[in-house]
């Protein structure tokens, strides 16, 4: 969410009515999230000026660990330097820390492609935004889910119940520090996640939604303490419930 919002912001800056705007003091502390959107808190160090040049050698974009040769345009400006400077800063301050860690395994190669392409400046802001929107579409639609055996049949579902809240086993990347709370596309995906975790005996699909509209599911190591909840459905492994009365 943070990276996509940043890319949309940089897309606007690259195509603003004033021309391509560069953020000269590009630091994480210069941004804040407002209603799920990333915004710049300080525009004092923004500029629409692009570096003047006489030849291509005048247009090297230097960073502490990398340098990029750019072209000198016919009107004596380093072509696209503002856009590329913003994009590489987004890569080194945001993408490298956030992109590799929070996506389903099937989407991680696509995010790695974005990471590598922006880190080498092979993508401009237009290509980067299209790549992010493709990943978002796959994520929201569930098209990233690979064909696999149907596992939900191995679970008993109880509508209108949930287990008592409390600290349970933890997983990554959980929305709760007390247990394992993950976003899912469907109960079928939740069943696959539960099967992949040795501690998991049950999961609850709630009415809570993430910013993409995906429901949250709580994965738990037990199921015995059930309480009524009209907005929840609890799924219990048949193997865990065998010999017990529901």
TrEMBL record:
GO terms for biological process: skeletal system development. Residues 2-116 form the FAM69 protein-kinase domain. Keywords: Kinase, Signal, Transferase. It comes from the Eukaryota. GO terms for cellular component: extracellular region. The keyword Kinase applies. This is PKDCC kinase. It comes from Cnemophilus loriae. The gene is Pkdcc_1.
């Amino acid at each position: 969410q943070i990276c996509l919002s940043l890319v949309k912001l940089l897309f606007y800056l690259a195509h603003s009515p004033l021309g391509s705007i560069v953020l000269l003091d590009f630091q994480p502390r210069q941004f804040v999230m407002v209603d799920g959107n990333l915004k710049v808190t300080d525009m004092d160090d923004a500029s629409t000026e692009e570096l003047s040049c006489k030849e291509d050698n005048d247009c090297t974009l230097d960073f502490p660990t990398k340098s990029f040769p750019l072209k000198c345009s016919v009107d004596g400006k380093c072509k696209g330097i503002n856009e590329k400077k913003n994009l590489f800063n987004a890569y080194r301050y945001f993408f490298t820390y956030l992109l590799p860690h929070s996506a389903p395994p099937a989407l991680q190669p696509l995010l790695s492609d974005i990471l590598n392409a922006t880190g080498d400046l092979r993508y401009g802001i237009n290509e980067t935004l299209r790549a992010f929107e493709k990943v978002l579409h796959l994520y929201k639609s569930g098209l990233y889910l690979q064909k696999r055996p149907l596992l939900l049949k191995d679970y008993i579902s109880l509508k209108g119940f949930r287990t008592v809240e409390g600290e349970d086993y933890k997983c990554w990347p959980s929305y709760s520090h007390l247990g394992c709370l993950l976003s899912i596309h469907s109960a079928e995906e939740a069943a696959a996640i539960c099967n992949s975790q040795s501690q998991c005996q049950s999961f609850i699909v709630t009415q809570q939604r993430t910013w993409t509209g995906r429901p949250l599911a709580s994965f738990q190591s037990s199921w015995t303490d059930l309480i009524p909840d009209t907005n929840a459905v609890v799924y219990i492994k048949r193997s865990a419930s065998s010999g017990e009365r529901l």
